[in-house]
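ok so I'm stuck.
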Amino acid sequence: MTIEAIARRAEVSVQTVYAIFKSKNGILIALLDQSMFGPAYEEVVGQALSAGDPETRLRRAASVARQIRGAQSAAFDLMRGAGVVAPELAKLERQRERLRYKGEESMITFLRQAGRLRHGLDHKTARDIFWMLTGAAVYRMLVRERGWSPHKYQKWLADALVELLLTR
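replied:
not stuck anymore, here's the structure
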């Protein structure tokens, strides 16, 4: 899909599309953000961040992951169907993963400061585990490929995060 086709479909000029989104990647980012970070996302994130107990916060993080991954899967399917080429999606996914990894620092810092980070687990390894388990690949494999319900995925993820990251 070209910028010209997008402008035509939106009934605006090409210059307007460039002024608002800057590039095709800008359009992709806006589409993903719109689909993934709406009111439902804001609600589950607010609930997670308001939890003072490390176990509750981790369990709520599983809810956030479910919300994001479900919306992301639909958005990526839509973009693939619209003819967005795989290299552009792959580049966008890598950029978003770097940002997600950076953003997840606060969860591990919270667990460590609360004295609940599992004994013998260093900060970087804990962050890597949290990042990997809450990522799109695990959701895709379990929900889309193995047929788990999103609810089953969320419960499993919550239990796994608690078991792997928290000291009892």
